[in-house]
Amino acid sequence: MSAKSNSHYDTLVKHFQSISHFEHLSALGDWDQATMMPMGGGEARGAAMAELAKHIHSLKTAPMLAQTINDAKELPLTKQQQANLAEMRYQYLQANVVPGELVEAKTKAAYRCEQAWRQQRRDNDWQGFKPNLENLMLLVKEEATIRAEAQNVSPYDALLDKFEPGMTTANLEQIFGNLKSWLPQLIQQVQDKQKSEPNFTIPNASAESQAKLGREIMNILGFDFNHGRLDISSHPFCGGVASDVRLTTRYDEADFTSGLMGIVHETGHAKYEQGLPKTWRGQPAGVARSMALHESQSLFCEMQIGRGSAFLKLIEPHLTSILSSPLTHSQLTNIYTRVKPELIRVDADEVTYPCHILLRFEAEKSLVTGELAVADLPDFWSTQMLSLLGINTDGDYRNGCMQDIHWAVGELGYFPSYTLGAMYAAQFRSAMETELGCVESQIDSGNLSSVMGWLNDNIWSQGSLLSIDELMRQSTGETLNPTHFKKHLETRYLSR
Amino acid sequence: MSAKSNSHYDTLVKHFQSISHFEHLSALGDWDQATMMPMGGGEARGAAMAELAKHIHSLKTAPMLAQTINDAKELPLTKQQQANLAEMRYQYLQANVVPGELVEAKTKAAYRCEQAWRQQRRDNDWQGFKPNLENLMLLVKEEATIRAEAQNVSPYDALLDKFEPGMTTANLEQIFGNLKSWLPQLIQQVQDKQKSEPNFTIPNASAESQAKLGREIMNILGFDFNHGRLDISSHPFCGGVASDVRLTTRYDEADFTSGLMGIVHETGHAKYEQGLPKTWRGQPAGVARSMALHESQSLFCEMQIGRGSAFLKLIEPHLTSILSSPLTHSQLTNIYTRVKPELIRVDADEVTYPCHILLRFEAEKSLVTGELAVADLPDFWSTQMLSLLGINTDGDYRNGCMQDIHWAVGELGYFPSYTLGAMYAAQFRSAMETELGCVESQIDSGNLSSVMGWLNDNIWSQGSLLSIDELMRQSTGETLNPTHFKKHLETRYLSR
Ligand SMILES: [Zn+2]
Ligand SMILES: [Zn+2]
After folding, report:
1. Per residue in B92-104, pLDDT tens?
2. Do A41 and A89 sit in the same domain of this protein?
């Protein structure tokens, strides 16, 4: 094997670099659409973005790829190059396995379903939503079946794999089964404990001052403003590209609490992006490892750091200066650790949140196997909400099975990532404390650098060079272990 | 000819629609870079934009185009379709005539020259700038020669044609010769007349209040905020796409005057874009006709409307409310009609401005023919500035021949557009007044709708469906006639 014969690999590197340039433009278009674009610009933008998506798809399914990838496998590549090649192969298979007509049919059905859902949700119109969802579900199942056959796994496993490569239904059933065995009781204990906490009013803060505070907090968390921005959108997100991370939040002048924690959360996502390995920029091995790991980083910032007593003390002087009336430290801690079963997932606290995921995991798994019909979804929902969180949702479709956008756009297999992320975050915290000592006391001393350094070395800078299991073992000594999450919740919510 | 055989034309329509989708993304990238992008994002953005430019170029030079365009010429097309096809052919030729290696060499030389120029200009470093410009000029001449051969015109004509299709050196020499015969004397007369005008201080206005005022004035001019935005950049420009026009300005708190008139100017560009024919969106016939006509619309807003007494009266109440101390109407008129020979083109008033263009036209024409060597440019500049505006610029390269970016990026043939635009604008005004009556008195009554309606019907909605001469004849009864410009200057600057 001569250097020259590495040209197969070099061809691939160049090709995937091209793809990443077009994905850069796609990320910019998405961000602009959510933050800057006037309504009237939507139609032309939509057409341009569709053209771009088509072009990216054509690059990902370029006929030369199959052979070139196969040829490159025979080359004397470094371990990292091999990892990159494996990711190329994975992306190629993901893009090629589903026939173009099915992708298009699903995209159209998803668009139709989502557009109608926006109004139907407001109207609590389950009867209107149902046929669209049924139609879309048929296509989702078709896609899942095709992917399953290609990967020799079950259809729902194939959907999970899109977001958390390697994750299986069996594995999740074990993890979530464990969770289900102790979480409802823990929720009850926490609620009993918090019963005596006093009520108080949340003071006002202008949107402008919240944005200023947000930037101060991003600085504390080490967000690099030379490679990113903070803006406003109706739903907070972290977009852009690794060299220019665009995050957003929204400001409620009567309640700063969720906008502020939204920034902390999205900054966690942003730190992962900003910390991705620079030598692998634009290559499949250079992107974030998985959706659950991405969420683990946002939840590390929000849950492990952000809602902890030390961090709240750290930001208190900044916060106090923008509030119409002061909050004590205990009130602030109160706000950010209050546990209360709620109807809406995105408003849930970190203790009850996994219940929302358990329910959705069971539902989508059964929708894909066919054990649950779309028509029976509302009943399933009511029963589960009552059993898990003690809330009656009968007839409240809007705040029940119609609350999330995921299914309305045909995205199944994603929900578990949220709770897996919370578990990964707790596990990272444990491993970090073994190495660095108490995280709270480091934050208390105003120094986040060793905490961030640990995340950078163990997670961000690894990109997709390791498998998830390899990354977990290398950084924490074991694969995913939900015990750490349980310990985290008990420590924060029961022991103080 | 059956409907089916129109498929050649339909293929082209689809192809150019694709190109326009990618150009949409290019416009977004440019705008974002100038307004939103953090510095650190520049490298990756540059790579993505270069990839996009390469892709657009490959679409514009697609091998199938030559034959398909030829075949489509035989089809029974409508007159407008024929115009669209002619524009397709023109774009195809423009993109194909210059060999890829030359385009790349020129792009690189231009990039190098511009990057160095940014610092060299600050340092007044002509000796440093000269070799870069000489090198770049060789490539510009090579490009001009190739274009000239393909179009059977002179090299400088070929450069002019890129910005003002159909314009020739001979034609410009006549137009600018006429201008030169009366302008210096007129400048002298205006200066004599303005000698007695009193001096006063320009009051402060916060950047925030200037932006608010800017939006009010854009509303008065009928800018459609559902299809556009106003932002800040270091150099004002009008970017984006027709359905989402992004204009920018900059604010100087100690001197609102240029930021404000910058908005009026860019709004003129924006109105043209927003008024382009909707049925031809994404097609070559649907874009603005030429650079000079684009400038005619910005200058119509800025010069014909914006600096007129009636408009200044219209915006006075809005303006007064943001100033630290009031300005009288006569002071305001004074500010915006003050004539004074200056070193810098972009700071020039509308009377002396054409002298800056006369000089640059003579210089670039002679640089291309070889009658003027780059080394002799500073001497040429000094002589001309002294003769045209009575200013000595010996040794002041920074404010002399190094002041503009155009030559530093190898853009020759563009400068004449500015003054052609001013002449077109005056000619439109004359024709409009013949049809609608006095423009000043319409603005005085606060009604700009018939003025804007006339521009919409005669210019904006025509896109590139007519040639420039056809458009001028149809809208004003004659081709470009500099007399109207002379009359405009005399009326505004000598008769009051
Ligand atoms: Zn998140
Ligand atoms: Zn302009």
Report:
1. 999 999 998 898 8
2. yes
* pTM given for the model: 0.93
- Rounded to the nearest whole angstrom, what is the distance from the C-alpha of residue B228 to the centroid of ligand 2? 17
What DSSP string runs through A448-476?
Answer: -HHHHHHHHHHTGGGTTSS-HHHHHHHHH
- Residue B163 falls within a domain, yes or no? no
Full domain range(s) for residue B225: 170-494
Instruction: Convert the pLDDT of each residue in A453-471 to its tens digit.
Output: 999 999 999 999 999 999 9
Q: Which residue, A93, A126, A154, sits at the end of a domain?
A: A154
Note whether B24 contacts A48, CB cutoff 8 Å.
yes
On whether any CB of chain A is under 8 Å from the CB of B243, the answer is yes
Rounded-to-10 torsion of CA B265, B269, B275, B276: 170
Instruction: Name which of A25, A90, A466 is nearest A277 in CA terms.
Output: A466
Residues paired with residue B230 on neighbouring β-strands, in sequence order: B247
Which of A25, A37, A224 faces B52 most closely, judged by CB atoms?
Answer: A25
**ipTM confidence:** 0.92
* B31 Cα: distance to centroid of ligand 1 (angstroms): 28
Is A187 found in the same domain as A145? no
* Residues 6+ positions from B440 with CB-CB distance below 8 Å: B308, B309, B310
Task: Report if residue B134 sits inside a domain.
Answer: yes
Considering the domain architecture, whether residues A177 and A143 belong to the same structural domain is answered as: no
Instruction: Please say which residue of A122, A154, A186 terminates a domain.
Output: A154
In the annotation, is A216 catalytic?
Answer: no
Contact between residue A450 and residue A325 where contact means Cβ atoms under 8 Å apart? no
State whether B102 and B232 are in the same domain.
no
User: A127 and A249: one domain?
Assistant: no
Amino acid at A24: H
Partners of A240 on chain B (C-beta within 8 Å) are: 41
pLDDT in tens, B115-145: 899 899 999 999 999 999 999 999 999 999 9
Q: How far apart are CA A405 and CA B175, in angstroms?
A: 63
SS3 A6: helix
Instruction: Give whole-number Cα distances, A280 to A9, A13, A373, in Å.
Output: 14, 10, 44
The answer to whether residue A111 scores a pLDDT higher than 90 is: no
Q: At A365, list the tokens.
A: 């798994």
User: What confidence category does residue A3 fall into, taking pLDDT thresholds of 50, 70 and 90?
Assistant: very low
Q: How many structural domains is chain A composed of?
A: 2
Pairing verdict, β B238-241 and B244-249: antiparallel
Asked if residue A164 belongs to a domain, the reply is no
Ligand 2 centroid to Cα of residue A219, in Å, is: 39
Asked if B225's CB is within 8 angstroms of A38's CB, the reply is yes
Query: Which of A:3-32 have CB within 8 Å of B?
Result: 18, 21-22, 24-25, 28-29, 32
pLDDT tens for B304-334 read 999 999 999 999 999 999 999 999 999 999 9
CA distance readout (Å), B467 to B165, B167, B456: 8, 11, 17
Q: What is the pLDDT of residue B355?
A: 97
Examine the domain organization and report whether B339 and B480 are in the same domain.
Answer: yes
> So what's the pLDDT on residue A104?
86
Same domain, A435 and A340: yes
Please report the pLDDT score of residue A1 as a whole number. Answer: 39
Claim to verify: residue A66 and residue A134 sit in the same structural domain: yes
**Residue A124 lies inside a defined structural domain of this protein:** yes
Catalytic residue among A266, A273, A295, A302: A266
**CATH number (domain holding residue A185):** 1.10.1370.30
Say what the alpha-carbon torsion angle B110, B116, B122, B128 is, to the nearest 10 degrees.
-100
Assign A248 to helix, strand or coil.
strand
Q: In which element (H, E) is residue B228 found?
A: strand B228-232
Residues in chain A: 496
Three-class DSSP category at A232: strand
Distance CA B228, CA B245 (A): 4
Within 10 A of B177 (CB to CB), how many other CB atoms are there?
A: 11
Report pLDDT for A2. Answer: 42
